[in-house]
Amino acid sequence: MLQTKDLAVVILNWNGKALLEQFLPSVIKYSNDAVIYVADNASTDDSVEFIAKTFPMVKVIKNTENGGYAKGYNEALQHVEEPLLCLLNSDIEVTKNWLQPIVSEFSANENTAIIQPKILDFKNKSLFEYAGAAGGFIDKYGYPYCRGRIFDTIEQDNGQYNDTRDIFWASGACLFIRKSVFRTLKGFDESYFAHMEEIDLCWRAFNANYTIKYVGTSTVNHVGGATLSNTNPRKTYLNFRNSLFTLLKNTDSKVFVRIVARMLLDGVAGVRFLFQLKPAFFLAILKAHFSFYSNLPRLIKQRNLLSQRANYYESNSIVWSYFIKNRRTF
Are strands 136-138 and 124-128 parallel, antiparallel or unpaired? Predict the structure, then answer.
């Protein structure tokens, strides 16, 4: 029977002293006997010294460089021995009893490999938060969406997702995973740097016949955008590029059709940015596509080493459902 002492809460940090000062106390208060780590991505502020002085019960792992989310966790988790891992953003406030339902689910179901809790908006706790909400899904063209959030439409939390159910992907803002599964999957794809790497990880887990679950009786509150804002074209570039990476690596035998359709839809998004007088975002999509082309040989090699499964999507096209049929909720 797994217990909270078998769980490591690992917070990735880069120059985030202010976030640690604000949110680490809630993690310490409500994590019972779980082991808490801060994995520092070669910060240039005094984060590490601050932790040692203020929170001596927290273990610090010093990464050699700032390799982003993917490489940062891959490097840090080599030093963690607990059988259950919680990858937790530094801008998350946890709540009372957030760990017990998660550990119980892992104990009850051996094939459950990855779990996400309910993620609410720290600034307005009556709303779901963009990055994960009540569990993630993906459409046939690789567009991610969530229960509680489709594109920019966010639902209120009225208890409608207080369940436990299978999902397709769990948010990297608060992602629980068995250490053995993380190692079997060889961790995150470090070429992503940041954004979409958790969806790629979950897709590879799905293709390997693992189960990913949402547990709505565990709640955390996420600031979101504390490290890279939605108004930053860099984020648009990473999201569009990494989404194409993920689709090519993991989708089923209709990969060519799906990639072509996705790139056409990306083109529509780019034109929309131009009409909105946001040329930097149009250029970000263009740059993402050129990066995808240059990475094709590597991605095809990766695809050939991975397994793929059909029937991975809940919606044929979330773009069609949202923009044409005007569906706004899951």
Answer: unpaired
